[in-house]
Amino acid sequence: MRTGHLVPCIIEPLPSCAVWAGIFTGIDAAQGAPLSVRTWGFYTGALWSYHALVCPMEAIHGRRSCLHNAASGFILGYIGVSRGMLGVPFVNPYTLYSMRNPALLGGAIYGALGGTLAAVGGKPM
Fold it and tell me: The pTM is what?
Protein backbone atom coordinates (compact mmCIF):
# COMPACT_ATOMS: atom_id res chain seq x y z
CA MET A 1 0.00 0.00 0.00
CA ARG A 2 1.43 3.36 -1.04
CA THR A 3 0.56 5.77 1.76
CA GLY A 4 2.72 8.57 0.31
CA HIS A 5 0.11 8.86 -2.42
CA LEU A 6 -2.77 9.67 -0.03
CA VAL A 7 -1.98 13.23 1.08
CA PRO A 8 -1.40 14.67 -2.41
CA CYS A 9 -4.35 12.67 -3.71
CA ILE A 10 -6.64 14.20 -1.09
CA ILE A 11 -5.34 17.79 -1.43
CA GLU A 12 -4.97 17.99 -5.23
CA PRO A 13 -8.70 17.96 -6.12
CA LEU A 14 -9.62 20.89 -3.83
CA PRO A 15 -9.23 23.66 -6.46
CA SER A 16 -11.17 21.76 -9.13
CA CYS A 17 -13.87 20.87 -6.59
CA ALA A 18 -14.23 24.56 -5.71
CA VAL A 19 -14.49 25.57 -9.38
CA TRP A 20 -17.03 22.87 -10.28
CA ALA A 21 -19.03 23.70 -7.15
CA GLY A 22 -19.19 27.29 -8.37
CA ILE A 23 -20.45 26.10 -11.76
CA PHE A 24 -23.11 23.87 -10.16
CA THR A 25 -24.16 26.68 -7.81
CA GLY A 26 -24.49 28.99 -10.82
CA ILE A 27 -26.66 26.43 -12.59
CA ASP A 28 -28.85 26.23 -9.47
CA ALA A 29 -29.14 30.02 -9.40
CA ALA A 30 -30.06 30.10 -13.10
CA GLN A 31 -32.87 27.66 -12.34
CA GLY A 32 -34.27 29.94 -9.63
CA ALA A 33 -32.60 28.69 -6.44
CA PRO A 34 -31.14 31.37 -4.17
CA LEU A 35 -27.40 31.95 -4.58
CA SER A 36 -25.76 30.97 -1.29
CA VAL A 37 -22.41 30.00 0.17
CA ARG A 38 -24.11 27.02 1.81
CA THR A 39 -25.01 25.54 -1.58
CA TRP A 40 -21.47 26.11 -2.85
CA GLY A 41 -20.08 24.49 0.31
CA PHE A 42 -22.36 21.47 -0.11
CA TYR A 43 -21.23 20.93 -3.69
CA THR A 44 -17.57 21.43 -2.76
CA GLY A 45 -17.84 18.97 0.12
CA ALA A 46 -19.67 16.38 -1.96
CA LEU A 47 -17.16 16.52 -4.81
CA TRP A 48 -14.22 16.43 -2.43
CA SER A 49 -15.75 13.49 -0.51
CA TYR A 50 -16.05 11.61 -3.79
CA HIS A 51 -12.34 12.12 -4.46
CA ALA A 52 -11.46 11.33 -0.85
CA LEU A 53 -13.22 7.96 -1.15
CA VAL A 54 -11.45 7.07 -4.40
CA CYS A 55 -7.94 7.83 -3.05
CA PRO A 56 -7.64 5.02 -0.46
CA MET A 57 -9.04 2.47 -2.89
CA GLU A 58 -6.39 3.41 -5.44
CA ALA A 59 -3.68 3.32 -2.76
CA ILE A 60 -4.76 -0.11 -1.49
CA HIS A 61 -4.98 -1.69 -4.94
CA GLY A 62 -1.96 0.16 -6.31
CA ARG A 63 -3.73 1.11 -9.54
CA ARG A 64 -6.52 3.29 -10.88
CA SER A 65 -9.85 1.70 -11.78
CA CYS A 66 -13.28 2.97 -12.78
CA LEU A 67 -14.73 0.46 -10.31
CA HIS A 68 -13.32 2.63 -7.49
CA ASN A 69 -15.25 5.57 -8.88
CA ALA A 70 -18.41 3.47 -9.17
CA ALA A 71 -18.09 2.32 -5.54
CA SER A 72 -17.54 5.89 -4.34
CA GLY A 73 -20.54 7.11 -6.33
CA PHE A 74 -22.70 4.33 -4.91
CA ILE A 75 -21.68 5.08 -1.31
CA LEU A 76 -22.25 8.83 -1.57
CA GLY A 77 -25.44 8.38 -3.60
CA TYR A 78 -26.89 5.97 -1.07
CA ILE A 79 -26.06 8.23 1.87
CA GLY A 80 -27.29 11.36 0.10
CA VAL A 81 -30.61 9.88 -0.99
CA SER A 82 -31.27 8.14 2.33
CA ARG A 83 -30.71 11.41 4.22
CA GLY A 84 -32.82 13.43 1.77
CA MET A 85 -29.89 15.58 0.61
CA LEU A 86 -29.86 14.30 -2.99
CA GLY A 87 -32.51 13.52 -5.52
CA VAL A 88 -32.38 10.58 -7.90
CA PRO A 89 -31.85 11.60 -11.53
CA PHE A 90 -33.46 9.85 -14.52
CA VAL A 91 -36.23 8.23 -12.43
CA ASN A 92 -39.90 9.17 -12.24
CA PRO A 93 -40.59 10.35 -8.64
CA TYR A 94 -43.78 8.28 -8.44
CA THR A 95 -41.83 5.16 -9.31
CA LEU A 96 -39.02 6.06 -6.95
CA TYR A 97 -41.08 6.66 -3.83
CA SER A 98 -43.25 3.61 -4.37
CA MET A 99 -40.10 1.54 -3.82
CA ARG A 100 -39.29 0.10 -0.41
CA ASN A 101 -35.77 1.59 -0.31
CA PRO A 102 -35.25 4.38 -2.87
CA ALA A 103 -31.71 4.95 -1.56
CA LEU A 104 -30.56 1.69 -3.17
CA LEU A 105 -31.72 2.88 -6.59
CA GLY A 106 -30.14 6.27 -5.94
CA GLY A 107 -26.86 4.63 -5.00
CA ALA A 108 -26.97 2.43 -8.10
CA ILE A 109 -27.57 5.40 -10.39
CA TYR A 110 -24.88 7.58 -8.80
CA GLY A 111 -22.48 4.62 -8.88
CA ALA A 112 -23.22 4.01 -12.55
CA LEU A 113 -22.64 7.71 -13.27
CA GLY A 114 -19.31 7.72 -11.41
CA GLY A 115 -18.09 4.54 -13.09
CA THR A 116 -19.22 5.65 -16.55
CA LEU A 117 -17.61 9.07 -16.30
CA ALA A 118 -14.35 7.49 -15.10
CA ALA A 119 -14.41 4.99 -17.98
CA VAL A 120 -15.07 7.76 -20.49
CA GLY A 121 -12.18 9.68 -18.89
CA GLY A 122 -9.83 6.79 -19.65
CA LYS A 123 -9.64 4.82 -16.41
CA PRO A 124 -9.33 1.07 -16.96
CA MET A 125 -11.63 -1.49 -15.42
Answer: 0.86
Angle at the Cα of 104 from the Cα atoms of 51 and 59, rounded to 5 degrees: 25
Amino acid identity at 106: G
Rg of the chain over Cα atoms, rounded to whole angstroms, equals 16
What is the four-CA torsion angle of 43, 17, 110, 57, rounded to 10 degrees? -130
Contact 72, 53 (CB under 8 A): yes
- C-alpha span between 18 and 21 (Å, rounded): 5
Q: Please give the pLDDT value at position 56.
A: 87
With a cut of 50, list the residues of the chain below it in pLDDT.
none
Angle at 48 (CA atoms; ends 107, 83), nearest 5 degrees? 40
Q: What angle do CA 52, 1, 77 make, to 5 degrees?
A: 25
> What are the respective helix, strand and coil percentages of the chain, to the nearest 5?
75, 0, 25
Q: What is the pLDDT of residue 113?
A: 95
C-alpha to C-alpha distance for 38 and 62, rounded to whole angstroms: 36
pLDDT at 30: 95
